[in-house]
């Protein structure tokens, strides 16, 4: 179980440190876990002058899985665009062919108050968003700035999907739906965009291989609305890279506690990159205040999806549930009557619960 | 005041009928209003075989403003794509050069319970979303389906903005911000898409002409999240066609009562198309159940933006506030203790309040 660990920037090193403690416990209990660190994002730039250094690339290519903290920080905002931290993230996704991004939006009962939505609307919320991650307008060519036929400045990007790109993400989504409630909603804008009309056709075609799954379709604008109106109507959602970027962030915020939400980005062989859904939070970096639970839960997803260690994954997830039930809270999820803990304090609690 | 009236499909004719009654009152009180009807969408297809018939086009081109009900219905879903109702909508926007779509998201105090969000998060909500409506990936060329270099089927669309397209929507947005709280948030994905990097640069450039307006920038994924987390941080938002489609629907649903929300789509000279933000609701069509208030409020926007009749606009808006305060409610916004009325019953109440 070779794991490349990329602490990244901001709170990244702190939250990764706590996830490492959790993995250390599992190793002591017999899992053959090997960890090695490398810089990504701003840390990559600081060390090697680029956000995805060759050193990091080599390590990640050789590893079975990658555990990432977060990237980005204000000190990198004035760098040339290709050198900025988020380019490291886009580069590693593309380099490792991590086309399937899984982003759960789960409301923990203990944290129900954190949501800005009424309890009856979100209690029990458990959505899995499957976002295609290496195609679409993120990577489509041609792209750039130039001058149009009228001699005017313009800029353009290309939304593009090939059949195989859509097929493989469809299979991932149907596979996940099969393991859950067998309900899959594919999100498109087929009334306007040919790319997503094509997407929809292929979803319908792949659905024939999963007769038990009930496939539905929704326009992206309506999906953005329905997530607010009645999010519990959804179980698994699948969509392209840019719509998935928007909807998965919206869905995660429905829970009110994105400090709790992990994510996985998988390739064809379940090699994966695992990271919290939240960002690098430069404002609280280095202060031992961050919530490490999303990173710890990302490690649990890694145990499940890349290594097939369902039992170990559940053990970690149950430890997180235990510490919530015990009332431990970092600042982002704190409420009166609970016990406020630091980032490492939360790590202590999880290790104890393990 | 020549107004082309396009009832459209579904509940369109019913809600338009009530808005006409409101305009009739204003005409009797002295406004030189002339109304003429034409079919659009499915109604256009039924009458002339196309969703935006020439008859309708001529009327709309000659008019000062267009009042639209809604388009679309299941009976048109199997038509060839170019014949479908929503193509009529896209065609009229492009034909009349209606590049500025204004979509308010306002929470009426009397309807605060309708929101799925907690009252303290949404009470007093009043956001104006300015969406560019005739450019972006909706209309960008090239687009279509084909076969790529690897011989595989693919589909593609082009996101594209020229400088003048961005400049003119920027001026509309800054102009509106000047009349409100002088806070404008431009939404982009400048960390990934050159088109929106270009958009952002031009926003910053235009901002120099509006030194009193505080311009901020936000990534679209974060905006989708912030609308859920703390929507009252926003006053005026401006964004491109596809992001605006998604975010304006999300924002309108925050109010819980999209049956109340009007919209305007303006050209360079304030000629405009006015329509409710909601759809054609085929399930309740013909039953006299629909909420006509969004359409009536759209007529008020028309009086304000196209005809500069602020007083008449306020008179209509105040009449709507009055009927809400009196407790009249159509089914979509009904709650215990209020008086349920039909579509025409709500029209009666508004006419009485006028
Ligand atoms: C940082 C950015 C490039 C990235 C994306 O848009 O994919 C982020 O928003 C995400 O969702 O992981
Ligand atoms: C019907 C559709 C083409 C349209 C759009 O996407 O613009 C609608 O969603 C809207 O927002 O008016």
TrEMBL record, chains A, B:
EC number: 1.1.1.85
Database matches in InterPro entries: IsoCit/isopropylmalate_DH_CS, IsoPropMal-DH-like_dom, Isopropylmalate_DH
GO-annotated biological processes: L-leucine biosynthetic process
Compartment list: Cytoplasm
Binding-site residues for substrate, renumbered to this chain: 93, 103, 131, 221
Keywords of the record: Amino-acid biosynthesis, Branched-chain amino acid biosynthesis, Cytoplasm, Leucine biosynthesis, Magnesium, Manganese, Metal-binding, NAD, Oxidoreductase
Residues marked Important for catalysis (site): 138, 189
Cofactor note: Binds 1 Mg(2+) or Mn(2+) ion per subunit.
Binding annotation for NAD(+): 73-86, 279-291
Binding site for Mg(2+): 221, 245, 249
One GO CC term on file: cytosol
Gene3D superfamilies: Isopropylmalate Dehydrogenase
Reactions catalysed, as given in the entry: (2R,3S)-3-isopropylmalate + NAD(+) = 4-methyl-2-oxopentanoate + CO2 + NADH
Cofactors demanded by this protein: Mg(2+); Mn(2+)
Pathway field: Amino-acid biosynthesis; L-leucine biosynthesis; L-leucine from 3-methyl-2-oxobutanoate: step 3/4
Entry's Gene Ontology molecular function annotations: 3-isopropylmalate dehydrogenase activity; magnesium ion binding; NAD binding
Superkingdom: Bacteria
Span of domain Isopropylmalate dehydrogenase-like: 2-350
Keyword NAD found: yes
Record function comment: Catalyzes the oxidation of 3-carboxy-2-hydroxy-4-methylpentanoate (3-isopropylmalate) to 3-carboxy-4-methyl-2-oxopentanoate. The product decarboxylates to 4-methyl-2 oxopentanoate.
HAMAP family noted in UniProt: LeuB_type1
Annotated family: Belongs to the isocitrate and isopropylmalate dehydrogenases family. LeuB type 1 subfamily.
Subunit composition and interactions: Homodimer.
NCBIfam families in the cross-refs: leuB
Full protein name: 3-isopropylmalate dehydrogenase
Annotated organism of origin: Aquitalea aquatica
Lineage: Bacteria, Pseudomonadati, Pseudomonadota, Betaproteobacteria, Neisseriales
